[in-house]
């Protein structure tokens, strides 16, 4: 059997593909339009797992192209499940370009589900986000109310609803994974080679990546967006999870889906919150580098606090976090940024 990964030339998808290639026997087909993904990730996967990765450059709105591919694929090596990573993910950008988010995230998910139903692909793992919860919350559970305050979160919430509604009436089961804040780089990277996995995102908006770029000299300064939130130091609090743990959460969820054939929603975080100021100070401490930090206005659409209650996935799947320590996450992110300087 094969697995279809969308958007796996990107950060999270490529790490998850590596986890599946390492720990299962399934071959992986990656569909990505390379709008934000990188061929370097495909090359890294192919180097370490030869003859097990196929790549199709396509947008999910190219349904005729994907339909023709699936007509052939299902006859020779049927697809066991789809893991859907492809999406736009910037809260700030979604406030300016909402139509792009509803088109790329929600409508493309709908088209992908239609293809799954047509070609009898019965299992689907969906990359969602804690942003669906909206305003601040500590120890948010999967039953917490959904009230997204930006188009990014709304586009993901709508996609979740599509999947859950279809799973009630069709031979189709889904796992929805609500990511909290993902950071770090592959702990198995061989930094003596260019064949590595990490966050290559250009003009990134992710806090840990930005702070690490400042520490290695890629940026001259960074900003804190708001210091008067109702939190312990006035800055936003987030639950940061290492990307390898997130990848393994997908693997655990997949095995549970195979076993139980039941749709589920899981939060993916550590139930630990760190403020923006705390993260920046930790990056400075670990890197032994100082850099300029400016205080800026709040960004529209940023919740004050998002912290996961992760008890459901810990109790109901084989998932066991390995890197739930902020120092470990930041150290791996710093190693990655230094590696990029060497090979770019």
UniProtKB/TrEMBL annotation:
The keyword Disulfide bond does not apply. Its cofactor is NAD(+). Homodimer. Residues 4-269 form the NAD-dependent epimerase/dehydratase domain. It comes from Helicobacter pylori GAM120Ai. GO terms for biological process: galactose catabolic process via UDP-galactose, Leloir pathway. It holds the Pfam family Epimerase. This is UDP-glucose 4-epimerase. Pathway: Carbohydrate metabolism; galactose metabolism. NCBIfam families: galE. It catalyses: UDP-alpha-D-glucose = UDP-alpha-D-galactose. InterPro entries: Epimerase_deHydtase (IPR001509), NAD(P)-bd_dom_sf (IPR036291), UDP_G4E (IPR005886). One of its GO terms (molecular function) is UDP-glucose 4-epimerase activity. It comes from the Bacteria. The keyword NAD applies. Its EC number is 5.1.3.2. Coiled coil: none annotated.
């Amino acid at each position: 059997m094969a697995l279809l990964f969308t958007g796996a030339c990107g950060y999270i998808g490529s790490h998850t593909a590596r986890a599946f290639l390492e720990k299962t026997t399934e071959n992986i087909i990656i569909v990505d339009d390379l709008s934000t993904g990188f061929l370097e990730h495909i090359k890294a996967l192919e180097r370490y797992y030869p003859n097990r990765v196929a790549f199709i450059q396509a947008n999910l709105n190219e349904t005729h192209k994907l339909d023709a591919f699936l007509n052939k694929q299902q006859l020779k090596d049927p697809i066991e499940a789809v893991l859907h990573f492809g999406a736009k993910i910037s809260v700030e950008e979604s406030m300016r370009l909402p139509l792009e988010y509803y088109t790329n995230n929600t409508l493309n998910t709908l088209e992908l589900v239609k293809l799954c139903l047509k070609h009898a692909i019965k299992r689907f793992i969906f990359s969602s986000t804690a942003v669906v919860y909206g305003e601040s919350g500590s120890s948010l559970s999967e039953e917490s109310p959904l009230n997204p305050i930006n188009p990014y979160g709304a586009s993901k919430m709508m996609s979740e609803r599509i999947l859950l509604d279809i799973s009630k009436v069709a031979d189709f089961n889904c796992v929805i994974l609500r990511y909290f804040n993902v950071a770090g780089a592959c702990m198995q990277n061989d930094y003596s080679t260019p064949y590595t996995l990490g966050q290559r995102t250009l003009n990134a908006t992710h806090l840990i990546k930005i702070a690490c770029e400042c520490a290695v000299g890629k940026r001259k300064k960074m900003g804190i967006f708001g210091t008067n939130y109702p939190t312990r130091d006035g800055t936003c609090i987030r639950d940061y999870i290492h990307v390898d743990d997130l990848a393994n959460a997908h693997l655990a969820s997949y095995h549970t889906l195979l076993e139980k054939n039941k749709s589920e929603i899981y939060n993916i975080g550590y139930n630990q919150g760190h403020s923006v100021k705390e993260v920046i100070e930790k990056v400075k401490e670990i890197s032994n580098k100082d850099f300029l930090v400016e205080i800026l206005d709040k960004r529209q659409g940023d919740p004050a606090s998002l912290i996961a209650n992760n008890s459901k996935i810990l109790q109901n799947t084989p998932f066991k976090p390995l890197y739930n320590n902020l120092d470990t996450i930041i150290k791996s992110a710093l190693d990655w940024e230094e590696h990029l300087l060497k090979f770019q």
